[in-house]
Amino acid sequence: MTVGVVTDSTSDIPVEVAQELGITVVPLYIHFGNEVFQDGVDLDADEFYRRLETEPKLPKTSAPSSGTFIETYERLAAETDEIISLHISTRLSATYNSALVAKEGTRADCHIEVVDSLSTSIGLALLAITAAKEALTGASLERITATVNESIPRTHYFGMLDTLQYLYKGGRIGKAQTFLGSMLNVKPLLTLRDGEAYPVERVRGRPRALDRLCELVERYPNIKELAIADTTTPEDLETLAVRLSALFPREQTYRSRCGSTMGTYLGPGALTVALIEEAV
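^ that's the sequence the OP posted. Answer follows.
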């Protein structure tokens, strides 16, 4: 029996990758007024982004309950006696805390490790993929947890946003608030530092912002894993894939679309890149 791997829907992990590697994804919730949807389950991405741009109020997001995690852990415990559960940074969501409560509350005879990834979206996805690949080799929970913890400082996430307004209105802007009030047509580039949004620089115009996103990746010559994602611009994602193929094999690059939870804060027009460096 392999170690069970659990993550949450903020990981934006492609469905086919999660299925292939046996990763269980627990959805967060999206609230449009009184309507509640499960991220990635019962709200189509195209419909979500249409509503995001047309409805007067930003939707709210909420973490899965500890009960949802308990159900997940107990279901997996029928197949394995070890689980690693990796989640979005505690500075961005209560999801990790909910999973931690569930770990203590589950009745299953199963050893569970809950990990704060200090990341989100495809950065979190790459860590879950790392754990799942290790699990498929027969590695122990202790070994997998050590590998993930060693990988977290080598995981880097960058985002090019069309606007900061969604991040600001959603209350997840962090240190990037220093970019508020910038000039028209200036595109903010952000990263994650200590688990929260952190400003990199402001770039005038989308083409130059795309250039800088690629240049940020170029700083890391020894890439082990690479992933890219967009919210509403698949043509720009294709351009990014072509550009980054000079740095990392295109066929090994994971491509995704940011789901409802991350899309709520990144907004339309966002492009993101995540990578894990090779261990030295």
